[in-house]
Amino acid sequence: MSSQVRGGTRWKRFALVMVPAVAATGAIGVAMAQGALAASFSVSGQSFKVTTDELRGKGFSQYGGVDTGYDLKGNKAAHAVAISGFKSATIKNMCQSVVTPDVPFLGSVTLVLKAGGGDTPVEADNLYLDVEELDADAVFHNIDIGVAAQDASKGPAMKPGEKANPFGFAQQADSVELSHVKQKAWATTAGTFKLSGLSMRLKSGVHECY
C-alpha cells in the first residue's frame, strides 16, 4: 500500500492528541508520546533548518519525543519533536543552516553546510531526525498508522539512552520518499553519515536555507 500526502505542521500544541490529522500531515503528523527522551545528549539552544530535493528512506518509523538541553543563556530547555528513524537513507542536494545571533562586533553569523548536490547523494544509515516542523511531498509504502511505539519494528531500534512510553502513538512504513523538503530540527543522529561534495561556509548576517 502506498500513501501520498502533502503536509506541514508545528509542534507548539504537542500535548494535544492529533490522531485524525496524521494521514493529512504525513511524515510529521504524530501525537507526542509522554515521557519520551529523544536524544541521548543535551541539545544546544539553537535549532537548525534543512532543505533537500529528495530523501529516500528504507525501514521508517516515527514517534513523539522531547529533546532536552539549554537555551542560549544556559537555562534548561525542552523541545517537543517528532522522531523519524530510517534504517538507511539517501539525500539529494542537502542544505543545512544555523544562525548564531548577537555575535560581538559581528551581529548574526550563519553556518551553511551543503552536500549531495552532484551525482552522488548523501548516504546515511541508522538515521534519526528530531524535527519540530516539516513541509514536504511524501509517499509511504506499506504504512501502518497508529502502531503502539513498543510494536514499531520496521524502522531502526531506538537510540541508546532513549526512553519512550511503550504504548505511545507511532507509525511505520517499509519505505518513504520525501521531496521538496523543508524542516526545522533540534538534532540529527546517524550510525554513518557520508557527505559527498561537502561545502561549509560562515556568512555574516542571516542566510538560512529557507
Describe the structure using short key phrases.
210 residues; signal; 10-stranded antiparallel beta sheet; 10 strands; 1 helix; Cholesterol esterase; DUF6230; mainly beta
**In angstroms, what separates the terminal alpha carbons?**
33 Å
Write down how many β-strands occur, each being a DSSP E stretch of 2 or more residues.
10
Radius of gyration from the alpha-carbon trace, in angstroms: 17 Å
Low-confidence stretches: 9-36
Average of per-residue pLDDT values: 83
- Overall shape: globular
- Following the backbone from N to C, one meets helices and strands in this order, namely EHEEEEEEEEE
Write down the domain tally.
Answer: 1
* H/I helix tally: 1
Could you estimate the helical fraction of the residues in percent? under 10%
Strand content: over 45%
Outline the structure in words.
With 210 residues, the chain is an all-beta fold. The chain contains 1 helix and 10 strands; from the N terminus they run βαβββββββββ. The protein has one domain. Helices cover 2% and strands 59% of the residues. Strands 1, 2, 3, 4, 5, 6, 7, 8, 9 and 10 form a 10-stranded antiparallel β-sheet that branches. It is globular. It starts with a strand and ends in a 6-residue tail after the last strand. Residues 1-38 form the signal peptide.
